Amino acid sequence: MRSDVQHSVAPWAILAGRPYFRQAWSDLLHSVSTGENAFRHAHGKGVWEYRAEHPEESVIFDRAMTAMSRGVAAAVIAAYDFRPFSVVMDVAGGQGALLAEILCRNPGQRGILFDQPQVVAKAGPVFDAAGVADRCDIVAGDFFVSVPEGADAVVLKWILHDWDDDTNIRILKTCRGAMRPDGKLLVLESILAPPNEGAGAKFGDLNMLVMPGGQERTAEEFELLLAASDFQVANIVEAGPRISIIEAEPV
After folding, report:
1. Strand pairing class (153-157; 136-140)
2. pTM of the model as a whole
3. Helix (H) or strand (E) holding 246
4. Are residues 113 and 120 in contact, defined by beta-carbon separation less than 8 angstroms?
5. Those residues with Cβ within 8 angstroms of residue 237's Cβ, 6 or more apart along the chain or in another chain
6. CB-based burial label for 236 (10 Å; 0-12, 13-18, 19+)
7. At a CB cut-off of 8 Å and minimum separation 6, what does 144 contact?
8. CA-based angle 132:71:112, to the nearest 5?
9. H-helix or E-strand containing 120?
10. 39-50: burial string, b at 16+ Cβ within 10 Å, e else
C-alpha cells in the first residue's frame, strides 16, 4: 500500500475508494438481479462518460492503470517472446508502462503508443524515464475510427473486457484493418476458469459488470469473439494468475 515502492497497489486502492466507485458497487444487487450495468443505474451515465466529465477522476484512473500495467509487465515479457517483432503497437495502451518495458527488453525494436489525446499527453515522461523515447511514436486517436498502420504486433491489454461483444468486434476489426497480413494480435486478459476455480478472474468479472458494463471471458468465448472479427487463435500463454496472452492471426 506504500506509494514509494515498486509495484505498489496504492493507486488501485485509491481508485477503488473513490465515492463514485463505491456508489456503483452499492448497486451490485441491481446488476445481479437484472444483468444491467450498476454504474449506469447509480449515476445515470456510463463510466467513460462520467470520467470525461470529471477529469480529476480520469487522472486517478490513469494512475491506477499505469500501476497495474507495471505490476504485470515483467510476467508478460517473461512468458512471451517479443523479439521477432520490429514494431509493437499498444492500442489503448494508457501512458505506455507496458510498451516501455517491452522496448527496454528489445533494443532494436520500435513502438507505437495509441490512446485518447488526454491519456497519451502524459506518456512522454514514462518513455523518457525508460530511455526509449527515441524509439516510440505517441499517437492520439479513437480506436472506434482507426488505428495507426505499420506494426507487426498489436497489443490489446485489458481492453476487451470493458465492452460487450458487438463493441469489441468493432474494435478488433479496426485493428485488423491496420495490421500486416503476417502480423500478430496479442490480447492480454484474464481468462475465466471452470466453476470453483480462479476466483480472481471471477471477481474481475463482477467488477466489469458493475463498472464499465463489460465481462471477463472463457478461452472459448475469446475464440468465438476473435473468429467473428476475422482472426484465429494460434496460441494461449498463461503469464500469471491475473493475465494470459491470447495470440491471434488475421484470416
Report:
1. unpaired
2. 0.94
3. strand 243-250
4. yes
5. 79, 80, 244, 245, 247
6. middle
7. 170, 171, 174
8. 35
9. helix 117-120
10. bbebbeeebeeb
The CA-based diameter of the chain, rounded to the nearest angstrom, is 52
pLDDT at 242: 84
Structural element, H or E, at residue 235: strand 231-240
The answer to whether 7 is a known catalytic residue is no
* Averaged pLDDT in 10-residue chunks for the chain of 251 residues: 85 96 97 96 97 96 92 94 97 96 96 96 95 98 96 98 97 96 97 93 95 97 98 96 95 94
| pLDDT tens readout for residues 8-58 | 899 999 999 999 999 999 999 999 999 999 999 999 999 999 999 999 999
By the 10 Å C-beta count (0-12 exposed, 13-18 middle, 19+ buried), 125 is classed as exposed
Active-site residue, from 30, 41, 43, 161: 161
Report how far residue 44's alpha carbon sits from residue 95's, in angstroms, rounded to the nearest whole number: 29
End-to-end C-alpha distance for the chain, whole angstroms:
45
DSSP E strands in 116-183: the ranges are 136-140, 153-157
Q: What is the DSSP-derived secondary structure letter of residue 178? A: H
Q: Cα(240)–Cα(71) distance, rounded to whole angstroms?
A: 11
**What is the pLDDT at residue 1?**
86
Confidence (pLDDT) at 7: 80
